[in-house]
Amino acid sequence: MDLDMALVRAFVLCAEELHFGHAAERLSITQQALSKRITKLESDLGLTLFDRSTRSVALTESGQRFLPPAREALAAADAAVAAVQGTPRTLRVDVLHERLAPAVMARRLVEKDSAIAVELSSRRTLTHAVPALLRGEIDLTFGRIHGQQPRALTHRIIRLEPLLVAVDADHPLAALDAVRPADLADYGLWTPTPGSASEWSGFVSRLAQTFGCVLRFPNVDNVTAEEIVARSRGAGPAFLTGTDVQNPVDPRVRVLDLVDPMPVYPWSLVWRTAERHPLVAHAVSVLTDLSVADGWCDALRHPHWPEGLAA
């Protein structure tokens, strides 16, 4: 059968976002139009690709099998168009999630050098992005490096993102100008369920253990001000988040810096060691320069946690 690449692209974006609204925004179409594309693709294949409910979207077993070759087919189609039109190849960057620090850094890359054409994807975790990088489906990705990494990949810390806590405006911590991690032991912490993002869950679990905090992972996809207020009301746990995350802005919520020491999340830029494409080398150079110019690792000037980090 002949696959309609528009349908395949819709499927891949839905699989990356696991949210039809977010995927529709990336495609610049309505959510209804996106649903029709997915329904058409499922009809053509004779398979159900997503388990959908009013609260969640998940890949079926068939959808999980279809995703890797679907990505490869898209990459091949894009390369074929570029070859015929004589256009430069797009830099394919996985930012894990559009709300996280890598998306901010990717935007700064384009702002700094508008000649760089960037195609973003969101695989949600470095664990998923690394195989795609090794297969050549993407050119760059970001993540917290932990454990042994393949020799075929090179990585460099490019952002030390200070962590923050948010609480109800009437919370005991809200009266402070800043919070020490040790101050959180009496209240505890919460952060959204990590799913497959072991880099984040492992990091915050280690932080909580180091400073004697009870840590909770509620099943919350999109953190709202209402969620923060409800969970921290009285003397409840504080919401742990990052400086670069799109956190809710609301007068009912107080956002506080963490200091003495400042917990920072170490974001590394990751690319193939043997990469020969000049666009990749150029992007790595621009992002490295931006890291210095924009102060992405300025946390090194302050007492920080974990120790031993170097940009």
Automatic annotation (TrEMBL):
Q: Which organism is it from?
A: Microbispora oryzae
The superkingdom of the source organism is Bacteria
**Record-linked InterPro entries:** LysR_HTH_N, LysR_subst-bd, WH-like_DNA-bd_sf, WH_DNA-bd_sf
- Entry annotated with the keyword DNA-binding: yes
Query: SUPFAM superfamilies of this UniProt entry?
Result: Periplasmic binding protein-like II, Winged helix' DNA-binding domain
* Cellular component terms per the entry's GO annotation: protein-DNA complex
Q: What is this protein called?
A: LysR family transcriptional regulator
Which intervals hold domain HTH lysR-type? 1-60
Regarding protein family, the annotation reads:
Belongs to the LysR transcriptional regulatory family.
Query: Coiled-coil stretches, from where to where?
Result: none
From the broadest rank down, the organism's phylogenetic lineage runs:
Bacteria, Bacillati, Actinomycetota, Actinomycetes, Streptosporangiales
MF terms from GO for this chain are:
DNA binding; DNA-binding transcription factor activity
Keyword terms, alphabetized: DNA-binding, Transcription, Transcription regulation
